Amino acid sequence: MTTTDTRLESGTSDLYLSMYRDMVRSRVLSDRMFALNRQGRAAFAVTGQGHEAAQVGSAYALTAGADWVLPYYRDVGVLVALGMKPYDILLGLFAKAGDPTSGGRQMPCHWSWPEMRVVTRSSVIAANLPHAAGIAYASKLLGRGEVTIVYFGEGATSEGDFHEAVNFAAIHQLPVVFFCENNGYAISESQEKQMAILHVADRARGYGIEGQTVDGNDALTVLQTTRWVIEECRRGLGPKLIEAKTYRYAPHTSSDDDRRYRTRAELEEWTRKDPIDRLRNRLLADGVLTPDADGAIRAAAQREIDEAVEAAERAPDPPDDDAFRYVFAEDA
Amino acid sequence: MPEITYREAIRQALRYQLQNDERVFLMGEDIGAYGGSYAVTKGFLDEFGEHRVKDTPIAESVVVGAGIGAAMAGLKPMVELMTINFSLLAIDQIVNNASKLYYMSNGQINVPLVIRMAGGAGSQLGAQHSHSLESWYAHVPGIKVVVPSTPYDAKGLLMTAFDDENTVIFIEHTALYASKGEVPEDGYRVPFGKLQVFRPGADVTLIGYSGSLHQAFRAAERMAQEGIEAEVLNLRTLRPLDVDGILASVRKTHRAVVIEDDWKFGGFAGEIAAIIQEQAFDDLDAPVMRCSGSDVPMPYAAALEQAALPQEDGIISLAKRIVGGRA
Question: Among A92, A316, B151, B301, which is 20 to 30 Å from B309 by CA?
Answer without folding.
Answer: B151
